[in-house]
Amino acid sequence: MPDAVRPSKREETRRETERTILAAAEKVFAEAGFGGATMQLIADMAGLPKANLHYYFPTKEALYRRVVGEIFEIWLQAAEALDQAQCPVEGIGAYIDAKMEISRRHPFGSKVWASEVMHGAPVIQDYLESTLRDWTEGRAAAIRRWISNGQMQPVDPHHLLYMLWATTQHYADFGHQIETLNGGRPLSDEDWAAATRSVKEIILRGVGAL
C-alpha cells in the first residue's frame, strides 16, 4: 500500500478499538436487550475503561444504532448477488448462501435486530420505514421479473422474502435451540454446509425454480 494512503498507526489503533467496542456491544445488546445493557457492561466486556467507550460513542443509543446499522448493512450487501442474477436459482441461491454465512458469523447482530423488532422497533423504526422498505420493493421487483419470465411459480414476493429472512436468521436467533437438538454441539462446518444446501433445495423447489 502506498504511504499516501496507508492508515497511520493511530488510525489503525482507533479502528481496532472501535471494532472491539462494537463486538462487545453486539454481544451485550443481544443478551441483555437495549434496556438491560449499560455502557459499563459493554466497557467491561470490551476490556476498556468506560471513558473510552464514551469517547467513541457518547450515548448508549448512538452505540446501539451503530450495532444495528452494521448488521443491516451486512444484510444489504448480501443481496447484491440477487440483484445481479439472471435467474432465481442463481439469485435466491446466492442470497441464501450469504444469509446463512451471516447467521453463522454474526449471530449476536441478528439477535439484536430480532429483539428490537419484536419490541416494536422503538429505536430503529426509521430504518424500517425508509431503507428496509425501499430495499424490499427493489428485491420484490426482481422476483416479479423472474415470475413474468416463467422462471419460477407465481408467488407473493414479499412473503417469499419474509420466508427467506425467517429461515436463514433462525440459525442465528435460535442457535441455542438448534445446538440442543444437535446433541448439545454447535453446528460443524459440515453441518452448516448441509443446512445451507437443504434450505436452498427446499425453497427453490417450493417456488418451482428447480
UniProtKB/TrEMBL annotation:
UniProt DNA-binding residue ranges: 38-57
Domain HTH tetR-type: 15-75
Domain of life: Bacteria
Pfam families the record matches: TetR_C_3, TetR_N
Keywords of the record: DNA-binding
Record PROSITE patterns: HTH_TETR_2
GO molecular function terms listed in the Swiss-Prot or TrEMBL record: DNA-binding transcription factor activity; transcription cis-regulatory region binding
GO biological process, one term: negative regulation of DNA-templated transcription
Keyword Coiled coil among UniProt keywords: no
KW Nucleotide-binding (keyword) present: no
Stated name of the protein: Transcriptional regulator, TetR family
Source species of the chain: Cereibacter sphaeroides (strain ATCC 17023 / DSM 158 / JCM 6121 / CCUG 31486 / LMG 2827 / NBRC 12203 / NCIMB 8253 / ATH 2.4.1.) (Rhodobacter sphaeroides)
Lineage, highest ranks first: Bacteria, Pseudomonadati, Pseudomonadota, Alphaproteobacteria, Rhodobacterales
